[in-house]
Design a protein that fits this description.
- The protein is of the alpha/beta class.
- The protein has two domains: about 280 residues, 3-Layer(aba) Sandwich (Aspartate Aminotransferase, domain 2); about 90 residues, Aspartate Aminotransferase, domain 1, CATH 3.90.1150.
- The strands form three sheets. The chain has a seven-stranded mixed sheet, with helices on both faces. A four-stranded mixed sheet has the order 1-2-3-13.
- The protein is globular and about 70 Å long.
- The two termini are about 25 Å apart.
- It binds pyridoxal-5'-phosphate (PLP).
- Pyridoxal-5'-phosphate binds next to helix 5.
């Protein structure tokens, strides 16, 4: 580690004395610690790093902060809440805020999906949705359904269930021995002809038939649920072909399979509607969400569940002694006051600033900007929808090398985002003005061009 990073104790929160002890998540720790990228400040759409360099945040953190960084309304709400009630245990007890937030969330979810279970993050939301699927089928006397269907190139988080239904090979390979049994994957929907398609591709609806095939091979009556991201986010914005999600819904209905939309990324306006479900006109049985629920400032995950499923689980346990939970599941941090306060402040901003429409209006400008990078030499594919996009770099030697090198050149050029493998993940904040989108695109052009020359 460079000694220039050692600074006085007054700077301790920004510049650590040692980088050794923190084992960083999803990070090449060895390389990072030789040449760290530390973020010290965030305001609006900008970040500042430990060298004092200002960068534009082109991925809303990890899709977390669509309302921008440092929102006073959120910080003040959290601070006020912590002063009044910092924690209360969530099992057989509660406080008003979590009920109020559930009502506000249920107003924005598709009709009928109005029962809200709080978790800690996206992974625990997915894990919870898997358990609720099993609990629901059992409540209906259908306990043979144990199988789940996910999709290649899907990302659902890092717990055992979420890792299993996900379809990113590096996440699965190491942990194969402990993954959930009975999980099958459909093929992903990204076809060669989709390389530079703006919005939903016209071709590829037939990829949904993979679900029918799995149902035929394993017995549709044994499948508890199918989980997909309406738009696969972490693997670089893979947009569903026209008619694909509708066909998945039809096949689920035919076999009594529950459909879970993982909207941890697409939820809360990323597509221009509150949920991708509404944007694409397909209603699942459960929706998972996290990230933007609190504008990323306090961890919180949510599973929104069809009312009928909630009723079935409650009804089936009506003969239990008083005080027995209907669902043996929950977390110490399910709906804690600080997260709820952030969530309520976020809902206020969504409404006051008509934020989903703002995202919708800015989307074509972002998509035009992204596609203007098509001429760059090493760019092999650009996909996008709403306020999200993926730029794929030509693979160099091994998967991920080109993506990471491009990320570093872009960082140096003053635009920050995340790469997954060779895909650059772009997801600007909804508060962006056109000048911010221009800045993101200009700096991407500089960074990508510098990478090509390197
Ligand atoms: C679609 C999706 N589901 C689940 C997760 C996991 O969320 P978390 O990292 O909050 O556990 C993510 C994270 O990026 C995600 O994109």
């Amino acid at each position: 580690m460079s000694t220039s990073l050692f600074m006085s104790s007054s700077n301790r929160t920004n510049i650590p004395n040692s980088l050794n002890e923190h084992w960083m998540p999803f990070t090449d720790n060895k390389t990072f610690k030789k040449n760290p990228r530390l973020i010290t400040d965030a305001k609006g759409v900008y970040l500042t790093n430990h060298q004092g360099k200002k960068m534009i945040d082109a991925s809303s953190g990890l899709f977390c902060n669509p309302l921008g960084h440092g929102r006073k309304e959120i910080t003040e709400a959290v601070s006020k809440q912590l002063d009044k009630l910092d924690y209360c245990q969530p099992f057989n007890q509660g406080y008003g805020g979590s009920f109020e937030l559930a009502t506000r969330i249920a107003k924005k979810t598709p009709e009928g999906i109005n029962r809200i279970f709080y978790t800690i993050c996206g992974s625990t939301a997915v894990e919870t949705a898997i358990k609720i699927a099993i609990a629901y089928h059992r409540a209906k006397g259908d306990s043979k359904r144990f199988r789940f269907v996910g999709r290649e190139r899907g990302y659902h988080g890092m717990n055992i269930g979420a890792t299993t239904v996900g379809g990113m090979i590096n996440n699965i390979k190491t942990f194969a021995s402990v993954l959930m049994p009975g999980v099958q994957h459909m093929r992903h929907t990204h076809l060669p002809e989709h390389k530079f398609v703006k919005g939903q591709p016209d071709t590829g609806v037939e990829m949904a038939e993979d679900l029918e095939r799995i149902a035929m091979n394993f017995g549709g009556e044994n499948i508890a649920a199918c989980i997909v991201e309406p738009i696969a986010g972490s693997t670089g914005t893979l947009i569903p072909p026209k008619g694909y999600l509708k066909r998945i819904r039809e096949i689920c209905d035919k076999h009594g399979i529950l459909l879970i939309f993982d909207e941890v990324i697409t939820g809360w306006g990323r597509t221009g509607s509150a949920f991708a479900s509404q944007e694409f006109g397909v209603t699942p049985d459960m929706i998972t969400m996290a990230k933007a629920t609190t504008n990323g400032v306090i961890p919180m995950g949510v599973v929104a569940v069809k009312e009928e499923m909630y009723d079935a689980v409650l009804d089936s346990s009506s003969s239990n002694p008083e005080g027995t939970p209907e669902l043996f599941h929950g977390y110490t941090y399910s709906g804690i006051p600080a997260a709820v306060a952030a969530g309520l402040a976020v809902q206020d901003i969504f409404d006051k600033e008509d934020i989903f429409n703002r995202a919708k209006e800015m989307s074509p400008y972002l998509q035009d900007g992204l596609h203007s990078l098509k001429d760059l030499k090493e760019v092999v594919s650009i996909r996008g929808y709403g306020m999200m996009g993926g730029i794929e770099m030509r693979m160099k030697d091994k998967p991920g090398k080109a993506g990471f090198q491009t990320f570093k050149h872009c960082y140096d050029a003053g635009v920050n985002f995340k790469n997954t493998g060779d895909s650059l993940i772009i997801a600007p904040q909804f508060i962006c003005e056109k000048k911010h989108i221009d800045e993101i695109i200009d700096k991407l052009r500089t960074g990508i061009s510098n990478y090509s020359k390197s």
